[in-house]
Specification:
Layout (H helix, E strand, L loop, with lengths): L3 E5 L5 E6 H7 L3 E9 L5 E6 L10 E3 L1 E3 L7 H13 L5 E14 L2 E13 L11 E7 L1 H10 L6 H13 L1
Parallel strand pairs: 3-8
Antiparallel strand pairs: 1-2, 3-6, 4-5, 4-9, 7-8
Length: 169
């Protein structure tokens, strides 16, 4: 089944739709969201992308990151993907948005107007193994050390979004 992303200009005006992989090949700006989830100790949830993902497989990234469908709000898309990937319902709040562009390998680019959401979760996950290989919580301090020592283990966009997140908090 073909998936489409919503192409936008920097002011979030819709320019049209494009098949997701083609948008990533062309490096065109499109809508996206990223979700950061924390436990009660303030540790961040990381997910390891499933081995079958068409780019960045088996790399660690934030709890959820994806694209809203046409006609779907950023919040609706984020809550849908949390349910589809992690098998949970959780309250999230939008904290900021920004634009970034990153090369992710294999001739593919992420060029996104990214809305970043934050929430807390302290319960069981029901992982969709087609999307997520595993999850774990980690302190920001330990995460910074891991990224410094082994940056290749993390998605390119996560490293960018994490730095942007730290500037806001």
């Amino acid at each position: 089944m073909e998936e489409f992303v919503v192409l936008v200009n920097p002011e979030d005006k819709v320019l049209g739709l494009m098949e997701k992989q083609q948008a990533h090949i062309n490096g065109l700006l499109h809508r996206a969201f990223s979700v950061f989830l924390f436990n009660n100790k303030g540790e961040m949830l990381l997910q390891k992308r499933a081995s079958g993902k068409y780019h960045s497989p088996l790399k660690w990234t934030n709890a959820v990151c994806s694209h809203p469908k046409n006609g779907e709000t950023y919040l609706e898309g984020a809550k849908r993907r949390i349910k589809e990937e992690l098998g949970i319902d959780v309250e999230i709040t939008e904290k900021f948005n920004f634009i970034y562009k990153a090369y992710v390998g294999n001739g593919l680019w992420e060029h996104e107007l990214d809305h970043v959401f934050v929430g807390n979760f302290e319960n069981e996950f029901h992982l969709n193994k087609n999307e997520v290989a595993e999850v774990r919580y980690i302190s920001i301090e330990d995460l910074d050390k891991e990224i410094a020592e082994n940056p290749e283990n993390f998605t390119e966009w996560f490293k960018i979004i994490l730095e942007e997140y730290k500037h806001h908090f």
